[in-house]
Amino acid sequence: MVGYNNHLSQHPYDHYDSAMKKTASGFSPLICLDRKAGKPLYSQVYDAFRAAIVGGNLRAGQRIPSTRALSSELRISRIPVLNAYAQLLAEGYFKSRVGSGTFVSSSLPDLLTPSQDYSARSTRVLAMPRPIARRSSLIPRYERPAWVSGHGAFSLSQPAVDAFPFHVWSKLVARYWRDLHRSALQYGDPMGFKELREAIGAYLRAARSVRCEWQQIMIVSGSQQALDISARVLLDAGSPVWIEEPGYWLTRHMLTAAGCRLVPVPVDNDGLDVAVGVERCSKARAAYVAPSHQYPLGATMSASRRLQLLEWAQSAASWIVEDDYDSEYRYDSKPIASLQGLDHSSRVIYIGTFSKVLFPSLRVGYIVIPSDLVEHFVAIRHAMDVSPSHLYQVVFADFINEGHFSRHIRRMRLVYGGRREVLVNCIRKELDSVLQVHGAEAGLHLTVTLPKGYRDRVISARAARQNLWLWPLSPSYLGTTPRQGLILGFGGATVAEIPDAVRRLRAVLTSDRAR
Amino acid sequence: MVGYNNHLSQHPYDHYDSAMKKTASGFSPLICLDRKAGKPLYSQVYDAFRAAIVGGNLRAGQRIPSTRALSSELRISRIPVLNAYAQLLAEGYFKSRVGSGTFVSSSLPDLLTPSQDYSARSTRVLAMPRPIARRSSLIPRYERPAWVSGHGAFSLSQPAVDAFPFHVWSKLVARYWRDLHRSALQYGDPMGFKELREAIGAYLRAARSVRCEWQQIMIVSGSQQALDISARVLLDAGSPVWIEEPGYWLTRHMLTAAGCRLVPVPVDNDGLDVAVGVERCSKARAAYVAPSHQYPLGATMSASRRLQLLEWAQSAASWIVEDDYDSEYRYDSKPIASLQGLDHSSRVIYIGTFSKVLFPSLRVGYIVIPSDLVEHFVAIRHAMDVSPSHLYQVVFADFINEGHFSRHIRRMRLVYGGRREVLVNCIRKELDSVLQVHGAEAGLHLTVTLPKGYRDRVISARAARQNLWLWPLSPSYLGTTPRQGLILGFGGATVAEIPDAVRRLRAVLTSDRAR
């Protein structure tokens, strides 16, 4: 959040004030008074504050409750509290400012700095074994590599947030609070808000040919939670699961955390190669696929592969999890119906998110669940996090039902179509000899593969130093012979910005050190 | 949401309008045009709509895109779209209203009703086995028993939402949207928003003597997600885990879903009986406890038990998950420091929520993580749901930092203290011979136990028919000899409402059919 502290900028205590904004105001430390003790009450209050400050439980600059609030809380008269505060002020533990209240002083002689204390605790920790779950030791460390640290060209998963109709959205948010009903503040249905589920159902039936009733739709915090819930309902530790090779790394992490056995199945221009999957592991419990716009290579699964996959799932009694993470936007080709809509044996769990269509921090996605599995999904979801947050569910339902959503998608399809065209043309013009483009027919990103000798991680790291944000392709492979390439988002840079960004990318690629 | 459709109430098309509000507006069905086909374009558009309507992908009353929007989307001239719409109107598939647009007609002769189609699909489903994860077959069905279906006396986990300063909160929400920075719309840190983590750290250090730095604090969607994440990081399938007997049923469900072996350890007036735990399973991987205000019996764990538990955890290399779900409010007794604050070997994972202090649909809670485990918690959280929702994190940080939070807690302590006192007095006056009160020193609920012969589920179900919402005690037991009792929330009924509610409870209890 930026800007709302500006009204303080002319204030003489500016520094002090903004420091205060950073710490919580007016919390009382734990004070246990013993009325029968020989020690007077004011001295007990003094001791409690002093111990809290020296022990690091109250920190420099932190606001202290008023004497009135504290004495009422402790159920004693104000006199001992006033006396204790006076002594703490006199000794320099407290600092007082007229009109602002009382604070812990910023410079204290005998104050143990909390970080020393903290690290002292940390070293003692290792005296005994500290066992964690096997699955959580298998999952790779969370890292933020250089190429995710900025926004703009060619940042991945970044929609054109500047084109989002915030005036509409914030009006709906304001209306939510104005018309708030008490029940909106209580725990909700673990499946989500009914009106939103109905609205999403109508959307998915029309736009994606998903066959569903609203009772099958669960609102989740995004496609990642959807993937996670599906794994917890369907997969046991050790269950073999087909994943796309190359594929989405977070699907892999999630399945690793679920303790599954990953079976990489190669992807070609027709999508997942079902025959190879059957060869490698015909009895996989599930297949995780993105048939509309495979990540990262962008293939759309062909009709024959779709039917093959559905047949396999039915004959092997397996599940298909269809991750339709960005299929709202298709450019050249005809629209593609969902795999779920072709499924006559309810083997497909259909997953989507609005992170790309609206904005990522929204945290709203959905699962379309085969009807016989709904009870299992609800039970697991309830045990995981009870119910989804209410506000944005209501606001988003209004946004859809009042027509803003379909208007926004139509508008953004033109915006992104334009950006994609400029990007593809610029790559052809500037880098045709070096880069081969894949999967530009849909979504918000395309992938380019590199000729022999280039190392994509090196390029991504170098590009990040030039404020160009490209994901390397090779980490999308589980196997040991990954292709080298780059994944370019085109949601976050305008038509005017793209040509220059491509020229800067060329400079990075043609530098000697790219190989 | 209530009230904002009121402006329609005088409209002659009221019924039609409110039906429209329920379905999404203006989504196009999937239309694949083949320009080389013999069939004219208008006829292809007609066929697509007819098929979508007959197949249930477009439903009665659903809005159709304008001819302008559709022709632009299909990149054809408006003429064939106009012709197709004219025919669909003439045949009664569409209905048009001047100024409102075009809709799928509400009465269609050859329309397969979607529910028929849906159930037809459902029966075919069972032809092949449908294997799900073992853990998801073990977890009990999600149910909403009669006693959770209303709000008011003595609804559990219901704070006094009418006393929440909504004018402040909604101003902060409005300010968030007004001053919004682009970065606020992107994915956030999987640990949560830094300013909120700092503010919660300051609060926990002061008010709960938790020893922590903000880097150890993870923002989650509530204490349930906190419990879940802790289990996924720390526990393997089959890991033995101590749980309180009786205890919180959702902790049990979560641990069942994690595949753990539950070891019930009895609770007495001093909290968890550590010696019995050691006897039953000395090598448990973890203990899940609520030492401040045990659920449901309300004991506060004594100092000696706390030290025993910490010693056990250190010597057995086990973890303690401290669920401090409602310790903001203590009434009679002295404040109790957290167990985490006594721990010198970083064996305690400290968990809390703001569902009770603010409102449940907020969905904001936290985990204080031992510093060497932070990397594992982050990796699992990122694989589970990427990052928490942004808006309420910022708003809540502002709410704390501007002093509203500590003021609200102080105020609510008085409100709840008053309600608790009235409830305890009324029970003593009206039902002293029948009910024994437990755990009224803290939190937002107390528990009463029943004399021999009473069956708590029967009473709860009967009370629900009188608009009294009481949880039965017996489902809190894992073992086969549960005590019979009732759990009474006092957050959701005012001082004026409580006496009558207790009298009505007496009527339920003294009826013959209660036993």
Describe this structure in words.
2 copies of one chain form a homodimer. In chain A, the strands form 3 sheets. Chain A has an 8-stranded mixed sheet, sandwiched between helices. The first copy, chain A, has a 4-stranded antiparallel sheet with strand order 12-13-15-14. A 3-stranded antiparallel sheet of chain A has the order 1-3-2. Helices cover 40% and strands 12% of the residues of chain A. The first copy, chain A, has 3 domains: 1-131, Orthogonal Bundle (Arc Repressor Mutant, subunit A), CATH 1.10.10.10; 147-158 and 408-514, Alpha-Beta Complex (Aspartate Aminotransferase, domain 1); 182-401, Aspartate Aminotransferase, domain 2. With 515 residues, chain A is of the alpha/beta class. In chain A, helix 12 (303-316) links the parallel strand 8 and strand 9 (319-323). The model of chain A is unreliable at 1-24 and 114-120 (pLDDT under 50). The two termini of chain A are 40 Å apart.
Task: Annotate the secondary structure layout.
The structure is a homodimer of 515-residue chains.
Chain A: H1 14-22, H2 41-54, E1 63-64, H3 67-74, H4 78-90, E2 94-97, E3 101-104, H5 114-124, H6 134-138, H7 166-178, H8 194-208, E4 217-220, H9 223-234, E5 240-245, H10 249-257, E6 261-268, E7 271-272, H11 274-280, E8 286-289, H12 303-316, E9 319-323, E10 348-353, E11 365-368, H13 374-385, H14 391-401, H15 404-431, E12 436-438, E13 445-449, H16 456-465, E14 471-472, E15 485-489, H17 498-510
Parallel strand pairs in A: 5-6, 5-8, 8-9, 9-10
Antiparallel strand pairs in A: 1-3, 2-3, 4-11, 6-7, 10-11, 12-13, 13-15, 14-15
Helix pairs in contact in A: 2-4, 3-4, 7-14, 8-14, 9-10, 9-13, 15-17
